[in-house]
């Protein structure tokens, strides 16, 4: 069976168009899946880190997840705000919080230089720690995020500066 | 001859479709729901979870009660699955943060698809819970056990904002009475 040139060209054009559409479809699908995966990881992390409530309406493209603050979230924000009011160099992202844009809120606590600068200033301002005592940026991060006192004197410094209430004794 | 060939090709295609349909049905019928749940958690990118209970609403609907996030597992989730021709598939999921520490009992109201659910953590020593509402309704919620324990109630009538929870141990002795309030707008 001998095919005419016209027929051969037509077949090549049809196959090329089909291949191009298939490639476009699979690349788009792959990009969408990657975007969904990244978004789901972000939602998981932010839900865990800020103790948010989450409603997953759709976990496929287009993804639909709603996040709501809880008492745990409020406690984190209160600690953050208390530090920021005394040390304004630590940004308290009020607009992002009001807009419940939790990914932007998280970004505001990622500047390790600012965290270090603030915790150093706190140790300097307090009369409690002896000279030479200090803390790393994670100390302030862990206090704000997890209410942890992971370095010597940090709890006393926070009480001394009026950020944490005085401990009640029995 | 040509007609015969067309019939053969058509018959082969129909046969393949029928085989595929029955193969799907077979896989579907024999799909282990626990494998499907595991897969759904992975696709949600949740890797550390505790499953307390799987509640079948009917043959094609199920709810999974779980908590997640190492180390305290304080995010309490419920996920609804539906059985389709592709097997068990995700419908919707809700996650609520509830701190366990120093609490005998916590609880939250949530709506998932068209179901109203009350649920929360309770101590492992609790063997039975009785809920009494202000208008005299009485419920016995289910307990879901894993390393920790939760209680849950799928409501079939009107939700309530407040109720007394009576907690019993395995000897039927009252361990504690607690009043819980629920935000029905959450």
Mean of pLDDT of chain B: 92
How confident is the prediction overall: mean pLDDT of chain A?
93
Which bin fits the share of residues in helices of chain A? 55-70%
Q: Tally the helices of chain A: what do you get?
A: 7
Task: Describe what is shown at a glance.
Chain A is mainly alpha-helical and 170 residues long.
Word description of this protein:
- The complex is a heterodimer of chains A (170) and B (186).
- Chain A has 2 domains: 5-67; 70-160, no CATH class.
- Chain A has 7 helices and 2 strands.
- Chain A has helices at 5-50, 71-86, 94-98, 102-107, 112-125, 137-146, 154-160; strands at residues 53-58, 64-68.
- Chain A has a two-stranded antiparallel sheet.
- The longest helix of chain A is centred in the first third of the chain and has 46 residues, at 5-50.
- Chain A starts with a helix and ends in a 10-residue tail after the last helix.
- Chain B is of the alpha+beta class and 186 residues long.
- Chain B folds into 2 domains: 1-30; 31-181, no CATH class.
- Chain B has helices at residues 2-29, 33-43; strands spanning 49-58, 61-68, 75-84, 87-97, 108-112, 115-122, 128-133, 138-139, 142-145, 149-155, 162-168, 174-181.
- In chain B, the strands form 3 sheets. A 4-stranded antiparallel sheet of chain B has the order 1-2-3-4.
- The interface between A and B is medium-sized, with 18 and 16 residues.
């Amino acid at each position: 069976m001998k095919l005419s040139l016209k027929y051969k060209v037509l077949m090549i054009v049809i196959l090329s168009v089909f291949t191009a559409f298939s490639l476009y479809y699979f690349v788009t699908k792959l990009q969408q899946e990657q975007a969904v995966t990244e978004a789901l990881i972000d939602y998981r992390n932010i839900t865990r880190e800020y103790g948010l409530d989450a409603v997953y309406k759709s976990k496929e493209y287009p993804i639909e997840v709603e996040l709501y603050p809880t008492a745990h979230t409020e406690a984190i924000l209160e600690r953050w705000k208390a530090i920021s009011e005394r040390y304004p160099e630590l940004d308290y992202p009020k607009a992002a919080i009001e807009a419940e844009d939790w990914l932007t809120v998280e970004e505001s606590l990622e500047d390790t230089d600012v965290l270090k600068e603030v915790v150093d200033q706190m140790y300097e301002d307090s009369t409690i720690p002896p000279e030479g005592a200090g803390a790393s940026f994670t100390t302030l991060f862990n206090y704000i995020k997890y209410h942890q006192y992971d370095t010597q004197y940090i709890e006393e410094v926070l009480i001394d500066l009026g950020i944490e209430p005085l401990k009640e004794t029995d | 001859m040509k007609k015969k060939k067309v019939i053969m090709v058509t018959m082969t295609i129909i046969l393949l479709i029928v085989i595929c349909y029955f193969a799907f049905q077979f896989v579907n019928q024999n799909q282990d729901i626990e494998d499907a749940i595991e897969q759904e958690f992975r696709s949600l990118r949740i890797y550390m979870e505790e499953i307390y209970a799987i509640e079948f609403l009917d043959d094609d609907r199920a709810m999974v009660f779980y908590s997640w996030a190492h180390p305290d597992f304080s995010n309490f989730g419920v996920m609804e699955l539906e059985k389709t021709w592709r097997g068990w598939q995700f419908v919707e999921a809700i996650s609520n943060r509830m701190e366990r520490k120093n609490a005998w009992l916590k609880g939250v109201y949530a709506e998932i698809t068209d179901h109203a659910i009350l649920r929360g953590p309770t101590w492992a020593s609790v063997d039975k819970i009785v809920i009494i509402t202000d208008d005299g309704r009485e419920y016995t919620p289910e307990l879901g056990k894993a390393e920790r324990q939760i209680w849950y109630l799928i409501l079939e009538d009107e939700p309530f904002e407040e109720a007394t929870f009576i907690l019993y141990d395995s000897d039927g002795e009252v361990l504690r009475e607690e009043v819980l309030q629920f935000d029905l707008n959450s």
